Amino acid sequence: MSGRRIIKGLDEALAHAKGERSSSRSRTIRVPEQVDVKAIRERMNMSQREFALLFGFSLANIRNWEQGRRFPDGSARVLLKVIDRYPEEVENALTPSDNLAMCN
Hints:
This is Type II toxin-antitoxin system MqsA family antitoxin. By secondary structure, this protein is an all-alpha fold. 62% of the residues lie in helices and 0% in strands. It is built from seven helices and no strands.
């Protein structure tokens, strides 16, 4: 990377920090404040245990979230929202392919 590119990047970062417009692109992701875990799970017609195992959550977390004793943190809320919209894709992404399973 040339020195000019580094300086340009630093100038853009400084402008962004000051709230000025820059030529760089940015995207804001909205993390949902609340997620109805039980509704998502029931739409998928899954038990708490099945849902937890399939998507890598602990069963205790699923129970606590659904009973309102605890609430998912930001990253869990994002994953739950993605599961709600794209359950098959998330399942595919989290399921090892046959080739990867053979390597382990």
